[in-house]
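Quarterly update from the structural biology core.
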Amino acid sequence: MRDGGFVPSPAWSGLYVRAVSQMAFDERAAAQLDKLYATRDVLRRRRLVRDALAAQPAERILDVGCGPGFYVQELLDEVGPAGSIVGVDASADMLAVAGRRCEGWANVDFRQADATDLPVGEAEFDAALSVQVLEYVDDATRALRELHRALKPGGRVVVWDVDWETVSWHTEDRERMARVLEAWDEHLAHPSLPRTLAARLGDAGFESVQMEGHTFATSELTPEAYGGAMIPLIAGFARGRRGVSDDDAAAWAEEQRALQSRGEFYFACIQVCFRAVKPI
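Predicted structure, tokenized:
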């Protein structure tokens, strides 16, 4: 994610940088993600995703890329004891955290697997979701076909990803900002996946595809907003990429703090929610 005043601890920043740069979503990183997932913008996004999914009592739901289990935990309340949730993630450490988060629930199951090869049966689920996961998956269309396979006829899917090319970020050094954001794009398989997601959903067999964009914007450099929380992560990842030196990365982050001190900080990006249905 391209997300002063806010200055996180070195340990916090380092864990995020290692997690993204190496795709090593280990248990230490998962513990730190708890802090990010409790912030204002992320809480808002979870509400939007749950509203789009519209889980009902007694439904069986699949969460692909469930991470530390926040959606699973919240959806358990919505499906109730007669429903059930399966969370799938490639990281065993993330699944361990998710398991502890949902401890005591008998109607939840976590499975380790890649999004392109789901360990679930045919037509097993009433609904499925995948939130900011497919932009990291090389074969995103294959992952969508797996979601299609897992759903019952008439089943619903919600896919949420970020179009990183929509990022608008104030700077007085546009050339440096461009290099930093281009470097950041290297951690993704698809920096602008939403631009092709409607077509990919159709290719995977879905119909009634709907798209809704949600703007996340802030004029405050705060860890509660994507634009503030991600500065140390981006600065750490960009070093050594696209001609971004250590000094460049440090100067980029420092400029954002200086802009905040003058009341000139600005960040905005569009995150896109897709809904679709498997034909009956």
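The beta strands are 60-64, 84-89, 108-112, 125-131, 151-169, 207-218, 267-277.
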